[in-house]
Amino acid sequence: MNNSKHTWSPLRKSLLALAIGAATHAVQAATPASGTKEETLIVQSTSGSDFKPGGDALVPAYLDGQVAYGGRLGMLGEQKAMDVPFNVIGYTSKLVQDQQAKTIADVVRNDAGVQVSQGYGNMAETYRIRGFKLDGDDMLMGGLAGIVPRQVVDTQMLDRIEIFKGANALMNGAATSGVGGMINLEPKHAEDTPLTRLGVDYSSRSQLGGSLDVGRRYGDNNQVGVRVNLLHREGETTVEDDKRRTTVASVGLDYRGERLRSSLDVGYQKKTFHGGSMGVNISNIDFVPAVPGNSKNTSQKWAWSDIENEFGLARAEYDLTDIWTAYAAFGGQHSHEQGVYGGPKVINAAGDATIGRLDTNRISDSWSGMAGLRGNFDTGPVSHKVNVGYSASIKQDKVAWRMSSKNPLVNIYNNSAVPMPDYSLTGGNYSDPLTTGRNRTQGWLLSDTLGVLDDTLLFTAGARYQKVWVHSYNNATGDENRNARFIEDRWMPTYGVVYKPWEVVSLYANHTEALQPGSTAPEGAANQYQTTGIAHSKQNEVGVKTDFGRIGGTLSLFEIKKPSAIQNSSTNIYELSGEQRNRGVELSVFGEPTLGLRLNGSATWIDAEMTKTQDGINQGNKPVGVASFYSVLGAEYDIAAVEGLTATARVNHTGSQYANAANSKKLDSYTTLDLGARYRMRLNADRNEMVWRVGLDNVTNKNYWASVEDNGTYIYQGGGRELKVSMSYDF
Questions:
Q1: If residue 694 lies in a helix (H) or strand (E), which one and from where to where?
Q2: Residue extents of the structural domains in the chain
Q3: Which one of 8, 249, 566, 618 is CB 3.0 to 4.6 Å from 578, fit for a cystine?
């Protein structure tokens, strides 16, 4: 049952028509005409040395192709990790397939530097990198901000999920969140080898999906590429009465000329949630309740969320000369979220709770672009990699809401159906929301990487001039709240050094910064619902990277200081007068130390502390939701006795984390085990291949509280044991 009404836009009609048409043409092209002799296709692999840093070409995948040692650094383009003074790694579409990863959260669980959480009383995927929040809406696509689908992003259309760890204003500008790092998504483009891949998947209880992935290149030199991805999946999850539906369609076009390289990606994603758990509210109790059974649904069947997105991205780069290249990118997104949200608010240790109703109607439009010039040249013994660019983004939100005040009783351990309460409070015109917020950023980038001693010593110096506008509007009248208007500009420097004493070792250090709008003042503050200015964060980092060909890794030490908002006890104004300081150590190792055994492991130690607080209260305490230790160990082993058979395993550990600023409420540490296997069958001597995959997540069916959002209001339960089965067929 769908609780919302939707109208097919011309963009959506065009997109789906293009996707279906391209897929049909590609499948027909893949089928030889009757009576004709099949041609032999010869494929030659290209060396990773052909990669040119700074552009849009992806960093070559490492060994078996699941990990890429590098990624996109915003306007600085794709870079190998060994050559830059920053911590960046990428996960490929092959890893997505092999692990049956459905969303970004499933992918980043491979990295201990990223923790997955959930949105404030909704279904959104959110993340913490180095202990600081990154909203799913703030992720990048192709280096551009604000154009990813809202709240939850499916992996079907993605070639890379790249993680940049650390403050990143130089590369990416100002984001609403992302002080501790950023996630960039790269869409799929056609490869030189023709691809027609059909897929089916199942996960318990009854999630069933089907997908199509088609890629072709055309032209004498394969200049033109077409990539089409289609997906539909729906059914009940491992949680009772939690039903979800996903529809995805995307088309990627690209051109690879002698001097011009360009791409156009458009996509459509719709996600519907019915009855899903939206967290447990613990704001009215001074303890953390016992964990319910992980198959129990703490929400209600009448709770639902429907999120629909259309998005697009165009990129181009042109070699003006042998040493100078001009680049540009532009993208946009339209999203419409409607839902009735309801999470239990616990009132006692027996699990009794009230459950309210919050209706949301949100329409968001975002536009983002960049343009610049990069050059590679020498001045005597010094090499230069220069980048000059401009970027800007605009986002407009229209939001209206309704909520109840008389809420029925439920129990999180023995939940029962209750009628949906009537709403009694409203905000804005629910049927046609007015503009409630406009954010705009723009800035200039200047950077130069200087190399000496045959580029064994590299100095990076850069700065970004960034200007941020934050405007808020009354949702009932549309009038601007001028007291909540903030305009700030700042030069933010970045400098770093890379030293390669040996070809396989890189020593690095950096100082970089971040700029973001402050948090919104809570109800009851003198400036309630207003944005608290602009937060300026700073980071220092040192580390060592290694790449021995078969195994690589990174060891880094960092410190990040971020202003935080607190409520002044004298004025009752919610303002940026606090500070959170996170120090930590990160270790990652990946590769194939012995033939047939592949490892991907990482660990993160974080010493997080609130260093400036309101009247000294909670001074020195741990921030909400930041554990001291995280670790991941993943392994794959090719079983020699059975050709094509591979066993997989992954262990995730999260330390204990506090659920309030006073550090009086704590979530216990937990460890989960995932096991799986895949079997690859070659059906003939050509390219036809079938791959079977089976996985069992949380093998021990552990019950645990997985995370808490930054305010300490909602805690979220981890998933129970889940069986995943899929098959893909290439022809």
A1: strand 689-697
A2: 50-730
A3: 566
